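Thread: 1-O-phosphono-alpha-D-glucopyranose complex, take 2
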Amino acid sequence: MEVRSAVVPAAGLGTRFLPASKSVPKELMPIGDRPALQHVIDEAVAAGFDHIVVVSNVAKPAVEHYLTPDPRLVADLRERGRDDTADRLEAMGRDWTVDIVFQERPLGLGHAVGCASEVVRGDAFAVMLPDEIMGAHTLLARMTAVCRESGGGVVGLLRVPADEVSAYGVIEPEGPLSDGVVAVRGLVEKPAPEEAPSDLIVIGRYVLTVDVFDRIRTLTPGSGGELQLTDALREQAANGPIHGVLCEVERWDTGNPVGFAVAAVDLGLRDPVVGPALAAHLDSLR
Ligand code: G1P
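Output below.
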């Protein structure tokens, strides 16, 4: 099974981050030493993916600019002896390639993923929601392995308190988890707490077989009036295997300003350049 492409839906206008997101897309705001988008790309490349598909929005030209090689900047950095940064910039095109596709209207996550159907390569692909930053690539790597073994799609899972399930997609597991993996019988998008089939939510990592695009094409509006990826996966689960893998790596949800600030502090503390000074500053505030 060929698994190469990682689709990153990034077409949202980031209204919770206005006014900054008026000109700087939320995905390009720095967390630690890199933009959020780069964290997700680095996770994908470390997990073995070599083709990134960003689903963007024509109102966010900075995303295209970020993803365009800049040999002049690289040469300039090398002249100044900043080879580390130059090497990082040159990884694009060498370690991974990128396609950008555009979602013209905000019709939902299922629709956004469907916009990538023409450029995705291979038999299965990842979907990575860039609001979620992972502390390691091992979750995505494990999910890819489960996809290869089972021949079916895989979703990342997290157990949350019952009163939080209605903000997420929730799975109906076939039984108890075994070594962090479970077969999925069904999925429901944003259920009322009393109707939720479990306390296992779908987080922003998926490895999906390409036949999901056929299910996406026939989607009708679901929760919130949107074309939901969860609904396409529920149809797949009724006709073949879908598995869930429990997330055991650190995870930051940067979709709201508080979560973003927490991630910026946590990951800033791990940056060898600014971490020590940031830690000293936080100590001084106690
Ligand atoms: C989306 C998915 C949902 C999933 C969530 C994870 O929801 O539709 O199933 O649980 O991402 O973050 P959204 O956050 O776009 O409402």
